[in-house]
Specification:
alpha+beta, two-stranded antiparallel ribbon, 7 helices, globular
C-alpha cells in the first residue's frame, strides 16, 4: 500500500504497453522498373511462420491426410532449405497471400507429390507428401528431372522449386474459386489456354503434357515457368493476369 497525506491508498498497478505485432508485409523492389512490389512471408493467420508450426485450429483437413508435421521435420535438410528458398522466391517474384505449408502422408494418393486444398474462397494449406519430400535432395532432383525428360512436366531450371511453385500457383487461382474477381480472371486464363492448345510450337517452348490436363494444371505449370523457366508470351500473360486481378 502506498502512503499518502490523510491515509493510504492502493498503488495503481503499472500497465504494460500493448505488444505490436511485426508487420506481415514488407516492401521491396522488383528487378525491373523501380516500382515497389509487395513481398509476403509464408505466414499463417496468426502471423507465425507457417513452415515451422502447425495451426491445430485447422478443422478442414481432409481425412486422407495423415501424420501432419512442420516442414523442418524433413529428413534431408538440404532439401528443406531448397523448399524454403522456393517459397521465398515465389513471394518475391509474384507476391502471394499467406499460405500454410505442412508435411504429411497422402496414403490414398501415393503418386501425388503435393496437394493444395481450398474451400472455394481461398487456399487452406499446401501439403507436401512425405513419400517424396523425405527423399534425399539428390534423389528428389533425379525424380523431377525424369519428368522433364519424358515430356510430362514443363521444363524449368529448378526441379525442387518446381513442385512447390506449382502448388503455390494453385493457391493463387483455381477454377473452383467463386469470387467475381477470380471468375473474371478465370475467363482470361481459359481464353489463354485455348490459344496455348492451338499453338503447335508449345512443346518447343518447353511445355509438358501435364499442362494439357485441365485449366488448373495449365495455369500452375505456366506460372511455374514464369518464376523458374524461360520467359515467353504465355508466362508474360499470366504475370499480367496476376497483376490485373491482384491474385
Amino acid at each position: 500500500m502506498a502512503k499518502v497525506a490523510g491515509g493510504t491508498r492502493r498503488a495503481t498497478p503499472r500497465t504494460m504497453a500493448p505488444r505490436v505485432a511485426p508487420p506481415r508485409v514488407q516492401v521491396g523492389r522488383s528487378a525491373g522498373p523501380s516500382r515497389p512490389v509487395k513481398r509476403f512471408a509464408p505466414m499463417d493467420s496468426r502471423g507465425t511462420d507457417a513452415t515451422r508450426r502447425i495451426d491445430t485450429s485447422w478443422k478442414q483437413m481432409p481425412r486422407d491426410i495423415k501424420n501432419v508435421e512442420t516442414l523442418d521435420k524433413m529428413k534431408d535438410k538440404g532439401l528443406y532449405r531448397e523448399v524454403r528458398r522456393s517459397i521465398s522466391r515465389f513471394h518475391s517474384v509474384l507476391g502471394v497471400r499467406e499460405t500454410n505449408f505442412v508435411l504429411a502422408d497422402l496414403p490414398k494418393k501415393p503418386s501425388t507429390v503435393a496437394q493444395q486444398t481450398s474451400n472455394g474462397f481461398g487456399s487452406l494449406f499446401i501439403v507436401l507428401n512425405k513419400k517424396f519430400f523425405n527423399m534425399s535432395k539428390k534423389k528428389f532432383v533425379e525424380t523431377a528431372k525424369e519428368q522433364y525428360k519424358v515430356g510430362w512436366s514443363t521444363k524449368t531450371n529448378k526441379p525442387v522449386a518446381h513442385t512447390v511453385t506449382h502448388e503455390l500457383a494453385h493457391a493463387l487461382w483455381s477454377d473452383n474459386r467463386i469470387e467475381p474477381r477470380l471468375r473474371q480472371a478465370g475467363d482470361e486464363i481459359k481464353k489463354l489456354r485455348r490459344k496455348w492448345l492451338a499453338d503447335k510450337k508449345r512443346t518447343e517452348l518447353g511445355y509438358g503434357d501435364y499442362a494439357k490436363k485441365n485449366v488448373n494444371e495449365f495455369w500452375a505449370e505456366v506460372v511455374t515457368k514464369a518464376v523458374h523457366g524461360q520467359s515467353d508470351k504465355y508466362t508474360e500473360a499470366v504475370k499480367e493476369i496476376i497483376k490485373k486481378y491482384k491474385l
